[in-house]
Amino acid sequence: MSEKTLVRHCSPTLAGIKTGSLFTAEAADADALRQTLRRYNRTLGAKGVRLLPLRWRNGRALLYVYRPARLTQDLQADGARQLLCRCGYPTEDATRCVVRLMHRVCEGPEFPHEIGLFLGYPPEDVRGFIERDTPCKCVGCWKVYGDAAAAEERFRQYRRCTAAYCRALALGQSVERLTVADRIEKDQQKGRKKR
Fold first, then answer.
1. DSSP readout, 137-183?
2. pLDDT averaged over the chain?
3. Residue 50 parent element (H or E)
4. pTM of this structure
């Protein structure tokens, strides 16, 4: 997996403006991909970003790139907790939720609809997609059932970020340098040091 692939699919997550990103990478050599993921986790982990294979299938890996501290916050929102409880997730622990997501992704050929919560989609939009009791208001990175104006602004922000990161990478910036340190992670580390 190249830096170009990572930046093309995950720039908003690397920039710290999105909780998570998901993409498929060639994995004909699973050991080589595991080594690449370990290397990225060593360098990007210090900035609060993790890369995790959710599923391996037919020489391809479904990769989840996310910010654990931000995911913890997202999954504690009332709407997110309610949806996850209904789907059997252990909502008291975001890491255990990710493990449950891995199992759900491997259970069938389709993505579980609650996956949007792990990507930073608003709970009301994820709920709207699952229940489909109202028409969606617009479509971008996801189907929007709630605040269309706010979602469209986020879609524009994600596109601008991706374009800027792709340009910076082409000009020689590394993924490590482009990755913004997670403020939430920093605050949590400061709190642990004070104890």
1. SEESSSEESS-HHHHHHHHHHHHHHHHHHHHHHHTT--HHHHSPPPH
2. 91
3. strand 50-57
4. 0.89
